[in-house]
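Structure tokens please, single chain.
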Amino acid sequence: MTEYRTETDSIGPVEVATTDMWGAQTERSKQNFQISSRKFPAAFIKAHVELKRACALANKEFGVLDGPVADAIVQAADEVVGGQWLDMFPLDIFQTGSGTQTNMNVNEVLSNRAIQIMGGEVGSKKPVHPNDHVNKGQSSNDTIPTSMHVSALTEIHSKLLPALDTMIASLKRKELEFSSIIKIGRTHLQDAVPLTLGQEFSGYVFQLQAAREHIVSTSKQLHQLAIGGTAVGTGLNAHPQLSERVCQILSERLNIAFRSDGNKFALIGAKDAIVSVSGALRTLALSVMKIANDIRWLASGPRCGLGELELPANEPGSSIMPGKINPTQNEMLVQVGAQVIGNDAAVASGGQWSYLELNLMKPMMISNVLESITILSNGMVSFSEKALDGLKANEGRIATLVEQSLMLATALTPYVGYDTAATIAKTAFKEGKTIREILEASDYIPKDKIDEALDLSSMI
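Here you go.
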């Protein structure tokens, strides 16, 4: 049978299982907000714990927090960052819009673990109090926004940008590999003038490079942290140097240059930086959707589609059609993109809920941003390794389609004019012939000019 201990908060006593490291406020929230299966991501929890660690160190330096208490909090924080106790953060993201419950969840877990380290009784709040010590000089209103910025930046640098660079590198290799393969272009899903397959892939490379620059640019706003502003931005109850020192500690610890010079009222009262970053993630999602879908189209077939590309055969594609292979990695990445677009819509809506001195949608917003970063990162790496790296060009099929294209007539306009070139194209279509065959059977242009007019290399 489960054994319980009694913890208390400002409302009264609460029974908490003895195996749980959280306290009364977490237990109440756990019972009051059983809304979804979505919990705060581990990346956010670790960022919040890093913040508590930095605050403990700073407050110890300022002489406002007892040394042994601060040391115990730091040790407890190091354990969580190292992967211990992560099952002690059970709260649903759909809770109070300020994230107060999760801030207190972290305070209580670090407090109880620090109490254990110091030989005290878990739940006693002695000698380490969750509010007076772990949360000293802080408020949910400045710590949650701070951890939103820290976790988003950390995940962008450690996951998203490396994954993006992986996909860019894969596309660059294909751009070079396909540089001499001339194919037919398509606009409106109709035949257009030629280009090389390498040129087509160069467009994909540029898209992702531009998306990367956009993400790096917007994420610069995340370097400014709200910590030190406490409840509304004035810094009430915080040491006047807390913000600057915490930013220094976090910068050294995480190798990211955090800044204390942002306007605390704006950083607490609004979430513009998070909205901007989410928008940049949406742009990346749209880019990878186009790339994945283009390659899906070009690999359609293998006999009754475009068939210009050949995707790796990763797994059987049908439970009823033997031998069928589907573009599963492409479809995965398109679904990832759709989810990121949906996440961004929710984040944008959340940004609208910035009223007076506080935004009221923070848990949902950071959950969606971190999910977008995670699934984009994982999706791009998977697509690069399981689709792009093994992608091949069907050069025979490409050459056949180029030769059959009616849009080669575009190259005839300098010789015969637009109207006559259109007549040649229509005649070729009607008679089921190529542009070359029509020219060879007519006197539209001199026979010795046909090769020159239809020289594919001059069209690209």
